[in-house]
Amino acid sequence: MRDLFYDLVRRNGMAVSIYLMLAVSIWVFLLIILPQLTMLDYSFRFNLPPAKIGGPEDVYTLEQYRYFFQGSGASDGINTLDIGILFKTLFAAVFVTVFDLIICYPVAFVLAKSSAGAKARLLVLALIVPYWINEILRAFAFRILFGATGVINETGMGLGLWDTPIDFIREDVALYAGLAYAYILLMIFPLYNAIESLDRNQIEAARDMGANWWQVHAKVVIPYAKPGIASGMTMVFMLTSGALAAPQILGGPSNLWFTQLVYQWFNSGGNWPRGSAYAMVLLIVCIALVLLVMRLFKVSIGEIKQ
Amino acid sequence: MTKEISLEHVWVEFGEFTAVHKANLNIAGGEFFSFLGPSGCGKTTLLRCISGFQEPTRGKVKIGGEDMRGVGPNKRPTALIFQNLALFPLRSIADNIAFPLEVRGVDKKTRRKRADELLELIALSGQGDKKVSELSGGQKQRVAIARALAVEPDILLLDEPLSALDLKLRQHMRTELRAIQKQVGLTFIYITHDQGEALTMSDRIAVMNKGKIEQIGDGKAIYDHPTTSFVASFVGENNVLEGTVLSNDGQKMQIDAGLGTPFTVESHPAGGPALAPGDDCHLFVRPEALRISKDESSINQFESNFVTEEFEGNMRHIVMNANGKDLKLSLINDGTNAIDANAPVKLDFAPEMGIALKPGELASA
Known about the structure:
The structure holds 2 protein chains of 2 kinds.
Chain A: H1 2-12, H2 14-43, H3 63-70, H4 80-114, H5 117-128, H6 135-146, H7 151-158, H8 173-182, H9 184-196, H10 200-208, H11 213-241, H12 245-250, H13 258-266, H14 272-296, H15 301-304
Chain B: E1 5-14, E2 17-27, E3 32-36, H1 43-51, E4 58-63, E5 66-67, E6 78-81, H2 93-97, H3 99-102, H4 108-121, H5 137-149, E7 155-159, H6 167-184, E8 187-192, H7 195-201, E9 204-209, E10 212-217, H8 219-224, H9 229-234, E11 239-248, E12 252-256, E13 263-266, E14 280-285, E15 291-292, E16 301-311, E17 315-322, E18 325-332, E19 345-348, E20 354-357
Parallel strand pairs in B: 3-8, 3-9, 6-7, 7-8
Antiparallel strand pairs in B: 1-2, 1-4, 4-5, 9-10, 11-12, 11-14, 12-13, 14-20, 15-19, 16-17, 16-19, 17-18
Helix pairs in contact in B: 4-5
């Protein structure tokens, strides 16, 4: 820490260094670590009325976590509903992440390797501009798009492809599409950065040595872009599994996203400790899953930061 | 197996810009052929036409008599060695070398065996498991060659592969490349802007400028009997004098270059464009062809004054001034060529060492 500070001072001077250290410390400790620690603390407490907080009943407990696993029933019961929602959420988030990867890889590749200078900047701009629109507005736009009288149903029926409106909302198509769209830039840019730095000659060399297009990607581009892929997938997965707006607006009536459960405990349920416990469960499971996948594909965290 | 290559009226145009201007040539199987020219002369584009990364706008590229139009780089019997080598940094040396086999679905054991054979050829036996970054520049070079040879291509294309190496290594690799070529007996097509490389290694050289092939010939023909002003000034050092042809009888020419008595040179033996009396011409005399006159009056003699000298050990590079024109003079440092810096010095050259050509574009120094 001290060495880091001295190094900063040598490079940037005293004033800038103090500012940097303060800004980063405030960001990390005050805005990230402290609230999370408070949440963690909450999650191990009972939900008590304000009068009893700090009183003799305010002790640490595993009750909130027990509830997640066992529910309110008998002590040997299993909370299949909430656990089921967690797994459904994770599965959907993985699906959205993979879907984003499949869509974004070709776009990022073309952007990074085939278009030059002004054209590439224009394409990037075209990707960014839609994100000037608020996330909730975009979600509602998807709702309109996929609604019973929405553009897609109207067009489909107009062309005679189907007769009665398809309920895209109930079928979760709207939700998956909305989520895939919501964080797609976080997939494109890491991929673009990774592929962009790949020497074009590597691709041509592979071609020249007899590789077909599939092999060029499988054996040269993808191994090289692996850290970018990992970084994009991690971000999209984490944000998708933690998304709230899109599932609220686009989710089917019978279909809860895990974050909606957390929200319910905090908000309508008025049970902050249980909400905290659920949030912790989601966080830990997601991190574990990311680390596991990274291990499987032999990517280290150090590589990702590049 | 080696295959001959022919370029038939190959043009490459990028919009308004003509990168290759009607290239026409045949390269025999097993030949070491170089394209020599300054950067931007179209030599790399021509190489890309042969390897398949660039389709000619017009004309044909034939390999072994077969028209290559529409045949992708992965389907041609050529292997390209890139300027920066383009080794795969994430793969081991052996996996780099075996890459062409891997994409052809050859099994792991055979691949490893072939990689080991090639490692032996390039004198890197037992180093197959190293990473690319652990090798020196020359070793990487050899790995790139081995990788290109892995599937026994008919033609090896080399795009300035030595330009990133330091001088000593570059000279060493020249010999080595030539030896490998002799050993494997493949057609080598070599791209370079370094005339030393082209002259030492090649069977034949095509000198290019601005998309056009200026001259094709072996090193000696290119150096001793250039047919255009560009070739004369680009390949090797040359002094150029502007002059006028006084007479030309098909054997000898008389040229007035404004340095006193007219010079006598041989009419161009390589059959370059004929010069008639009254024509303007460029007269080229190599620095090593200029001599300090031993006699008071010899043929092609003129007076000059000492300007400066660069001492290189075995050679002395002297600049003399004759009638306002600086001339370079290279002398062997054998102690016999003392020059008086304060008095006019008489220089001369043999008639067969002067080359008179139609005035044309000169290579910029």
